[in-house]
RNA sequence: GGGGCGUUAGCUCAGCGGUAGAGCAUUCGGCUUUUAACCGACCGGUCGUAGGUUCAAUCCCUACACGCCCCA
């Protein structure tokens, strides 16, 4: 029962003693009490009532929640309990409660989960309070809560013991409430446009749909290697081939890469596909979606993120990849921006390591990452991505160096990636071959040749637009969170040693 | 992978080369309208881990672990 690293100290021993007393007096974990009222609902209804009318109304309420504050003053006490909706104060009086109950109550601890029945009244300072007639412990809490004033501040504990963080920090609860609200807004936004939510495999025999290192796993019965998916893209487009013309999926992707304030090994992605649309339609969709979320969460089109003001009210800026590179690299000669030798020399001067298989498009992307992305604070679309780094995107009709692809940036971060889908199976086959040769040249992130996907394209994918939005980064933006860990209920952490 | 910062009581934090500190919480006593309630007393520590330097290390040095931030 005891384990050293679990802080089995005197405080917990004391509470275990109290729990065994509760056990002696009957069921220590009763589950027959029923709540009738929520804290927030009572405040809404009665905060404005005056003392006298509340006293004459004699409103009986029953609440359940965790005791967060306990102030004992001799024969009467004030406590506060917290339920999912908020907090409410309760007054306990020795002479009002059943015989002996007040003495029992004095042994209860902050953190215990209680059920209280009583009459609503206003205190001298006009605080809505329940005058208790009945009080019971539903769950004894064995671990002391963090200090009442400063709360739980330690980042590591907040991430590892999210339950304690959620008990103590309203800001943290609010982030996750906003997260849920945003995701459900996205669903209703897409559902109202006749998109169909689907689920596609999380384990792939051929990893694909993105440029990233996968996690590997093994299926024992079938004795086969499987990969946790890095993207659902190729499966969703198979569904469009099948005739589901508008599909989306909100689910986890897994990438075997570093951890940072922007990256977690598993993260949530929205991907959507719409037949008979192109990337410009999806730029518009991104604008509509961002404005919708901004209104739902902040009731405004201007929000604040980490001291930056972000304005969604104006039409979002649009620049091509080459335009933005020239904008932030004044010394690049635009006529040479597709010249391999020129670009290679330029990139190397700025410290970018150029691998043998890099073409001018890949070098453009490297320069963009290093010199442009950080400046894209206001909502901005960068479009016309090089074909070389866009193996699943449709080539531009007038210029095969680029594709009909965009990425969307806010506060210096990529939030979305969308394009007109490559639906020419023969072109796609060529692009896969180039990826395979990159892999042979040592590129660990290059895509594999997906034969079944080519087969699907050969049946015919209608002209289609696709879009992916990183949900976690989106939540960061709208909850003003500096780290992805702040918007993940259980962020990745190194294994905790309990020895 | 590199650099910086951090790890002291259950929590929030001070501190110092010479017996380890505060507030809150706990325990005991007082208190029937409190708001970080208040008043009094007590209790609470392998100072992240392992080495090293030193008469003496929580403090200085090294390595490691974990975390946060920045860079690749």
* Overall pLDDT level: 95
Question: How many structural units, i.e. domains?
Answer: 2
Widest β-sheet, arrangement of strands = 6-10-11-18-17-16-15-14
**Which structural class fits the helix and strand makeup?**
alpha+beta
* Overall CATH class of the largest domain: Alpha Beta
According to CATH, what is the topology of the largest domain?
A: BirA Bifunctional Protein, domain 2
Q: Residue ranges: pLDDT <50 for 5 or more in a row?
A: 1-7
**Terminal Cα span:** 13 Å
Q: Approximately how much helix is present in the residues? A: 25-40%
Number of strands: 18
CATH H-level superfamily title of the largest domain: Bira Bifunctional Protein, Domain 2
- Using the CA coordinates, give the radius of gyration: 29 Å
Question: How would you portray this structure in words?
Answer:
The protein is α+β, with helices and mostly antiparallel strands and 499 residues long. The protein folds into 2 domains: 8-145, OB fold (Dihydrolipoamide Acetyltransferase, E2P) (Beta Barrel), CATH 2.40.50; 168-316 and 378-487, BirA Bifunctional Protein, domain 2. The chain contains 15 helices and 18 strands. It has helices spanning 10-24, 39-46, 51-57, 101-105, 155-160, 162-168, 170-191, 233-241, 279-298, 321-328, 340-349, 360-371, 425-440, 451-459, 471-479; strands at residues 60-73, 76-83, 86-93, 113-122, 128-139, 196-197, 203-204, 216-219, 224-228, 246-254, 266-275, 302-305, 308-311, 317-320, 380-383, 405-410, 413-420, 464-470. A hairpin with a 2-residue loop joins β12 (302-305) and β13. The two termini are 13 Å apart. The structure holds one RNA strand of 72 nucleotides.
